[in-house]
Amino acid sequence: MLREIYEQPPAIRKTIDCNSEDGRSLTAALWPIESTLLSFKKIIIAASGSSRHAGLAGEIMIEDLAGVSVDVEYSSEYRLRSTHADHHPLVIVITQSGETADTLAAQREALARGAKTVAISNVADSTIVREANAALITCAAPERAVPATKSFTTQLVVLYLLGLLLAGKWGRLSAEAIQTHLRGLLVLPDKIEKQLPSWDARAAEAARLAQHAKKFLFLGRGIHYAIAREGALKLKEVAYVQAEGLPAGELRHGPNALVDDALVVVGLATRDSSDADSTLRYQKTLGVLEYVKSYGARVIGIAAQGDNDISRVADRVIFVPPAPELLLPILEVVPLQLFAYHFASINGYDVDHPRHLLKAVTSE
């Protein structure tokens, strides 16, 4: 798991290279559904586990960039939904292995309903890729540890690239604006590579602070809620503790009953200082962290470099470099992966082979 966390910069670079050479590769991959890209009414993303969390982030990426309506379904629920709910959708299925039983079943149901499908997978010759109308491949190389790390961040990259492609086709962004967005993406691998040693050390410190905790809340707003969900899942998978990812604004609608001095709250409080909406979400999140701190909870913050306010409400802070709002998830999830790794390791668990878990869930 640790090796694959450190492999994320080259995996992201390769995924960008495979899918975005002047937009040509991504366009070529979607050529079989070219007409559908201009005629669908909405997008449905069907996925499970970490792939679904990537889909939740992708929903906001695509909606914000392209102005297209996106719904995210659990793969296991999609084929049990009423067929009347679908009006000419494009269905995107996401699975690292390409063999996930629920997601395969969801794609087959979508095809049976007459929808076009796009498979996002890390395995080019997998079943889901062969059966899809078109496929986008994350070029992360084989992932051996059960917890998804580099496959997750490369899924985010592909979804971001898809959002840019659709933004161009639907006339939401100019070619120049798309190139600006691409430049922001291209610098991320170097940023991650530079920060990994520091993140590793700080995540280990945060894990020692929380070593004996049995309950965690991960809080985020907007696109960061998806990463809160993923951070909580990583901890559940490898350390067998109760962890829940929530929108930060939902805390006072019931879950605040859990807040006491035995609770650890991980707050995603990054912000894009050039984005007024991002800054407002940050300020609201900071207020929630102040609230939980006042009731004795220990707080671990993920924040942007240069933030001088987070330290007054957090016991430990891991800082990430500045980035556009929609790209911050690719940065902030890496410290959460490292936190889960160190927390599980100091408590004596095998992070590569967690109990009851399989790399690919091939039966329902």
Walk me through this protein's architecture.
The protein is of the alpha/beta class and 364 residues long. It has two domains: 2-186, 3-Layer(aba) Sandwich (Rossmann fold), CATH 3.40.50.10490; 189-346, Rossmann fold, CATH 3.40.50.10490. It has helices at 2-6, 8-19, 24-29, 49-66, 75-78, 101-112, 127-131, 150-169, 175-186, 188-209, 223-239, 276-294, 328-346, and strands at 42-47, 70-74, 89-95, 116-121, 134-137, 215-220, 242-247, 263-269, 298-304, 316-320. A five-stranded parallel β-sheet has the order 2-1-3-4-5, with helices on both faces. The protein has a five-stranded parallel β-sheet with strand order 7-6-8-9-10, sandwiched between helices. Strand 6 (215-220), helix 11 (223-239) and strand 7 form a beta-alpha-beta unit. The radius of gyration is 20 Å and the shape is globular. The relative contact order is 0.14. The mean pLDDT is 93.
- H/I helix tally: 13
Order of helices and strands: HHHEHEHEHEHEHHHEHEEHEEH
Range of helix content: 40-55%
At the fourth level of CATH, the homologous superfamily of the largest domain is Glucose-6-phosphate isomerase like protein, domain 1
Estimated share of beta-strand residues:
15-25%
How do the strands of the widest beta sheet line up side by side? 2-1-3-4-5
Count of discrete structural domains: 2
Ends distance: 26 Å
Indicate the CATH topology of the largest domain: Rossmann fold
Largest sheet: 5 strands, parallel
- Specify the CATH architecture of the largest domain: 3-Layer(aba) Sandwich
CATH top level of the largest domain is Alpha Beta
What is the count of β-strands?
A: 10
Q: Which parts are unreliable, with pLDDT below 50 for 5 consecutive residues or more?
A: none
- Which structural class is indicated by helix and strand composition? alpha/beta
How would you state the average pLDDT, rounded? 93
Shape: globular
Computed over alpha carbons, the radius of gyration is: 20 Å
